[in-house]
Amino acid sequence: MHGPVFATAPGRCGILGNPSDIYGGKVLSCSVPARARCTLTASDDWVLPDDTRLWDACMARYPTEEPLQVEWETAVPRSSGLSGSTALLASTLASLLAFRGEEPALDSPKALADYAELVRDIERNEANIVCGYQDAYMIVHGGLQLMDFAGKHPKIPGPNATLKPIDAALPFILVTTGVERLSGSVHGPMAERWIAGEAVVVDAIARISELAEPGSEMLERGDLGRLAALMNENQELIASVGGSGDAIDLLVSRSISHGALAAKLAGAGMGGTIIALTESPDQLERALRADGYTRFMVPSRQPGVGYVR
Questions:
Q1: By CB atoms within 10 Å of each CB, which of 24, 132, 282, 288 scores lowest?
Q2: Along the chain (309 residues), what's the average pLDDT of each consecutive run of 10 residues?
Q3: How far apart are CA 178 and CA 272, in angstroms?
């Protein structure tokens, strides 16, 4: 019998450019300190989580007949827009591959990109979760990344993305609305409108994609004023095509009223989490706690998917 196999992966937050990754755009994104973990142990009988959707998706591609005990732990808030399902899938797949004696190398840019594509492909086509590409790439790579998804399309994976690691301070705080939602409820309808050529959606996505690269430069320079303008524009554009939602809009408004320089959705929208740009994260957190919000997190450059040795 094999000994236990452990793998973990971080959540992520979109800073600028989301959700243009699905449409061949550019996204600036960062990992978060919350991680998902999968432990696989050989067992006399199968012991599976209550919800086996992600496990079944992995097994559909990489089956094993040896009974396993599958244990999941996650600190990523459920359905919060921080890619908790992708983090759990990436760590589960890594554990399963290692258990099969097929541990992915994850030691070169190509190997990391190939694994990210595999994670996204399994999540989309085996788990039937409508998801973007930034999720898998960020969770596999970790850190703070400017990602270029040129050639990608809602229905065509296209070539591997190219990534540029960014070294900069992170004057942000994440705040969860408390409204759970599935990414497909946002991505699916918007993708259909984009594919149909609806001008307002096509134009908004094109402009959102243009924000990530200059935003990464502003972040590196510490030009928070110009960065704030780009983040607020990103939020206004996604809201204009129905991709934000009341819970996000309210939290964005409250964050700005409490002194945040900018605030926008960190994931797919219609609930979930915002990312606020602020020089006073503690002060902003206190003010929002007084408004009834309880879940806060600070983005940080964390390692991507990996094994616990």
A1: 282
A2: 85 96 97 97 95 97 95 88 94 96 93 97 93 94 98 93 98 89 63 94 97 98 98 96 91 98 83 92 98 96 92
A3: 7
Instruction: Please count the other Cβ atoms lying within 10 Å of the Cβ belonging to residue 67.
Output: 14
d(CA 11, CA 252): 21
Tell me the CATH number of domain 5-167+301-307, given options 3.90.420.10, 3.30.230.10, 1.10.10.10, 3.40.50.300: 3.30.230.10
Tokens of 165: 């690691």
DSSP state of 21: G
Q: Which residue, chain included where needed, has tokens 């890619």? A: 83
Residue 123 has which token pair? 């999540």
Kindly list the domain boundaries of the chain, sorted by start residue: 5-167+301-307, 172-297
Alpha-carbon span 229 to 20, nearest angstrom: 18
Dihedral of the alpha carbons of 197, 198, 203, 208, in degrees to the nearest 10: -90
CA 196 to chain centre: 26
Q: What angle do CA 81, 305, 107 make, to 5 degrees?
A: 140
- Does the domain formed by 172-297 have CATH 3.30.70.890? yes
One DSSP character per residue, 48-69 reads --S--HHHHHHHHHS---S-EE
- H or E, element range at 8: strand 5-16
